[in-house]
């Protein structure tokens, strides 16, 4: 027996599709929006509606951006000789929260996962190699270190090993985040202290 209006059920269903949102949380969010009145729902709808129109991929690192370059790549205060390679844009946010990393990033857009049909050609590996190889471009500092900051999962480790092999001919130093991160965990859920120590204790890879 249906006890809530169809429109509310639809909102609950859509909210339940979001990561980390279970049925009960989806219900609470839907009822929160309903109780807040039309203005609250309209504000959320406008924000979501403008999400894709206002966000693009950074031309250099593939992070989320509002212009051709993201805020990190466009900053003159970053160490351009140091690049952290991450899986997704939210990993950039996680590392930035530590306040300990001042280099640039490169977002792969995922990890190598043959079972899911994802190989290196589906990721931003080629663009990373191009960035590292372009060390003789006038006005660009040489890239001296690549930090492989993929998640400590089986897929993350496999992706890191593949990238390391591809980088070897380029002669750049390759390091991996230290084992302060739990195996099977994700960067976005790591606390700032653990992630900060992992950055400071990175090792040759």
In short:
This protein is α/β, with parallel strands linked by helices and 205 residues long.
Sheet-strand content, in percent, reads 5-15%
N/C terminus separation:
59 Å
CATH class of the largest domain: Alpha Beta
Query: Uncertain runs with pLDDT below 50, 5 residues or more?
Result: none
Give average pLDDT, whole number: 88
Which radius of gyration do the C-alpha atoms yield?
A: 20 Å
Secondary-structure element sequence?
HHHHEEEHEHEHEHE
Corresponding CATH architecture of the largest domain: 3-Layer(aba) Sandwich
Secondary structural class: alpha/beta
What is the domain total for the residues? 2
Specify the biggest β-sheet.
5 strands, mixed
Overall body shape: elongated
| Number of beta strands | 7
Describe the model.
With 205 residues, the chain is of the alpha/beta class. It has 2 domains: 6-54, RecR Domain 1 (Helicase, Ruva Protein, domain 3); 76-204, Dna Topoisomerase Vi A Subunit, Chain: A, domain 2 (3-Layer(aba) Sandwich). It has 8 helices and 7 strands. It has helices spanning 6-16, 23-35, 37-49, 51-54, 89-96, 125-133, 154-167, 192-200; strands spanning 56-57, 64-65, 79-86, 103-107, 145-148, 173-176, 203-204. It has a 5-stranded mixed beta sheet with strand order 4-3-5-6-7. Strands 1-2 form a two-stranded antiparallel ribbon. α7 links the parallel β5 (145-148) and β6 (173-176). α1 (6-16) packs across α2 (23-35). The chain is elongated and about 65 Å long. The model has no long low-confidence stretch (mean pLDDT 88).
